[in-house]
């Protein structure tokens, strides 16, 4: 069921008074709408409230995903979408927290029960160099399972395969009016390649930064976008000298840098996901601290993403929904 408005509103940091998106308990999307669901807003840490980074985009009668982190299949089910109904998955990069949900999407998706499976052809996975090798590993991992189910349940081999496409920057997918464009981002000197994605449909757009340091290519691709979903990492002052934390922060965008991206891109709505709040001696950085750093350069609309938060973008504007369980706090 949808969360009550009072709860959902606590997740909004600041909205301008004009042109702000509408919060709603229910709305019927049309064929012209672009709908985005945050399946997971977390990081490699174990967090029952924030599953691994994953996103569902629905448009043109299709379901596609950007990344597939831990628990993505469960979140899909909660969002009312069968893993077997996924048209394609686009990977930003091959770090574990962005791909650990893939085995579940693959193997559950080929089961015969349409409520959770029903896929009739191989799972389409697009990603950077290494995606093909990873996909072969997935097929090997489930070789025994697929052979047993083929013999016992009559499942077809083509439904249990993986179609891997290793991409370069540029237009990587176009179908039913939905366009997916990949652009390189800077996730660190040794992480090649890492991508962000821009998705365009019916005059509307959503941009996913992927894991990245401050990068002008994110700014350029998010210019005027309806929705920008961006990562960040933040550390308490008492841990800034820790070498492990320094390495993490050197691969991600700080809240101050994110504010600069938001201001320069002029995206209509920005959302924090892949939320890297690093613990210090006195706990995690507070959201007040994070937001204050963003506000040094950005005064527009900012939302703290939550798992199963949905954004519906259409001719009537933007609607934000919360759907799912009431998480323990």
From TrEMBL:
The Metallo-beta-lactamase domain covers which part of the protein? 51-252
TM region(s), chain numbering: none
Q: Which domain of life is it from?
A: Bacteria
Provide the leader sequence positions: 1-24
Gene Ontology terms for molecular function: 3'-tRNA processing endoribonuclease activity
Keyword terms: Hydrolase, Plasmid, Signal
Please give the name of this protein: Metallo-beta-lactamase family hydrolase protein
Q: Whose protein is this, by species? A: Rhizobium gallicum bv. gallicum R602sp
Q: Give the organism's phylogenetic lineage.
A: Bacteria, Pseudomonadati, Pseudomonadota, Alphaproteobacteria, Hyphomicrobiales
């Amino acid at each position: 069921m949808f969360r009550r408005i009072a709860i959902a509103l606590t997740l909004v940091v600041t909205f301008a008074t004009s042109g702000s998106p509408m919060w709603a308990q229910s709305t019927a999307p049309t064929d012209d709408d672009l709908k985005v669901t945050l399946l997971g807003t977390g990081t490699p840490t174990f967090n029952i409230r924030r599953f691994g980074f994953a996103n569902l985009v629905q448009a043109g009668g299709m379901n596609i995903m950007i990344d597939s982190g831990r628990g993505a299949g469960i979140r899909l089910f909660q969002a009312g979408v069968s893993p077997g109904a996924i048209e394609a998955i686009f990977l930003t990069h091959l770090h574990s927290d962005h791909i650990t949900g893939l085995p579940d999407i693959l193997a559950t998706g080929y089961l015969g029960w349409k409520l959770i499976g029903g896929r009739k052809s191989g799972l389409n996975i697009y990603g950077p160099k290494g995606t093909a090798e990873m996909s072969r590993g997935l097929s090997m991992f489930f070789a025994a399972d697929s052979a047993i189910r083929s013999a016992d349940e009559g499942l077809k081999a083509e439904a249990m395969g993986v179609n891997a496409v290793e991409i370069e920057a540029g237009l990587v997918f176009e179908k039913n009016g939905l366009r997916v464009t990949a652009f390189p981002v800077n996730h660190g000197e040794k992480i090649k390649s890492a991508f962000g994605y821009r998705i365009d449909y019916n005059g509307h757009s959503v941009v996913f930064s992927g894991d990245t340091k401050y990068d002008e290519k994110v700014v350029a691709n998010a210019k005027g976008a309806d929705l920008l979903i961006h990562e960040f990492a933040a550390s308490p002052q008492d841990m800034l000298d820790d070498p492990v934390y320094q390495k993490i922060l050197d691969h991600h965008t700080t809240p101050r840098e994110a504010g600069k991206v938001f201001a320069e891109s002029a995206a209509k709505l920005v959302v924090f996901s892949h939320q890297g709040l690093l613990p210090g001696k006195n706990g995690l950085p507070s959201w007040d601290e994070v937001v204050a750093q963003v506000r040094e350069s950005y005064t527009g609309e900012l939302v703290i993403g939550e798992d199963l938060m949905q954004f519906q973008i259409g001719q009537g504007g933007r609607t934000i929904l919360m759907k799912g369980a009431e998480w323990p706090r």
